[in-house]
Design a protein that fits this description.
Elements: H1 3-18, H2 27-38, H3 43-52, H4 67-70, H5 95-98, H6 110-121, H7 135-148, E1 167-170, E2 173-176, H8 177-193, H9 198-210, H10 217-221, H11 231-246, E3 255-256, H12 258-286, H13 289-295
Parallel strand pairs: 1-3
Antiparallel strand pairs: 1-2
Helix pairs in contact: 2-7, 2-9, 2-12, 3-12, 6-7, 7-12, 8-12
Bound molecules: zinc ion.
């Protein structure tokens, strides 16, 4: 293969990565969520995660949190697992009504995927388990999908594909509303407030969790009825925020600038914080040794 062809293939891959609106939170969003989660893992969960991570992750969960997006076109079946569509303008979510793919197959949506991969990971300490799941993939999927379900437009309206078909301008750039929430708000924040340095943004969010949001922390962490995982309330929050903040003042053809950016950035930062805390809490429940003893 000539150098030119290699360059050309490289460009096509680059272009594919730039196609807007097809991925979950962008790379930065997922990295941030998993970095935050790492800080709240219990000893047991941290050990299990390290054991399950692929070698190339070098012990860092955050480095594989976009894996589910990278393999999305290779594992075609996994596409519908990144989001859930809700009926237009209802601004609510119901698992039974909404969690299916376009062919109507039940449980094939982001909340269904979170239940499924949690259930798989629960077999981690169970040597008698007859089912042999790929727990490395289950961990990487779960870490990604708990992020996705917190992106308000991943629980958006069916008619506009979660904002994907709403063409708008982000400042001068033509894009779509879904992509603004996946990527552009975070990108603009990095440029405007964090010297283009993701680690500074992550530190700022971490500081907010311990200072500003400390009174909400326990509420974020907990699941009703002592469940191991509870993605349904997260999805309800997301469609609520989608109606209140994402769709509002973002009609097709509009230009979004400072007003939109500055009022929505706090929402995005809080969702990143919540998903990080909840991912850690979920992994802590899944891998707590106390739980595996009480099951015996
Ligand atoms: Zn995704």
């Amino acid at each position: 293969m000539g150098g030119f062809e290699v360059l050309w293939i490289g460009r096509v891959i680059l272009l594919l990565q730039l196609v807007p609106g097809i991925l979950g939170w962008g790379k930065e969003g997922h990295y941030t969520i998993c970095k935050i989660a790492e800080g709240y893992l219990s000893e047991d969960a941290s050990a299990a995660v390290k054991e399950l991570l692929p070698d190339h992750a070098e012990g860092d969960l955050a480095s594989v949190c976009s894996w589910a997006d990278e393999i999305r076109f290779h594992f075609h079946w996994s596409g519908p697992l990144h989001y859930v569509d809700t009926p237009d303008f209802r601004c609510n979510y119901s698992y039974c009504r909404d969690c299916h793919d376009t062919a109507g197959h039940k449980n094939r949506c982001v909340t269904g995927a979170i239940y499924n991969y949690t259930m798989q990971l629960m077999s981690y300490s169970d040597s008698n388990s007859e089912m042999k799941y790929n727990l490395t993939e289950a961990l990487m999927f779960l870490s990604h999908f708990i992020g996705d379900v917190h992106q308000p437009l991943h629980v958006g309206f069916l008619g506009d594909e979660g904002g994907n078909t709403i063409t708008i301008r982000w400042y001068k750039r033509k894009t779509n509303l879904h992509h603004v929430w996946d990527t552009m708000i975070i990108e603009s924040a990095l440029k405007t407030f964090y010297s283009k340095d993701l680690s500074i943004m992550i530190q700022a969010i971490q500081k907010n969790i311990t200072d500003g949001w400390s009174d909400e922390f326990l509420l974020w962490e907990g699941c009703a009825l002592d469940q191991t995982v509870c993605p349904d309330p997260y999805a309800s929050e997301s469609i609520n925020l989608a109606c209140k903040f994402a769709y509002r003042n973002a009609t097709p053809g509009s230009t979004l600038g400072d007003d939109y950016f500055l009022s929505r950035l706090p929402v995005v930062e809080k969702r990143l914080a919540q998903s990080g805390v909840r991912l850690a809490a979920t992994l802590n429940r899944i891998f707590s040794s106390r739980q595996s003893i009480s099951q015996e």
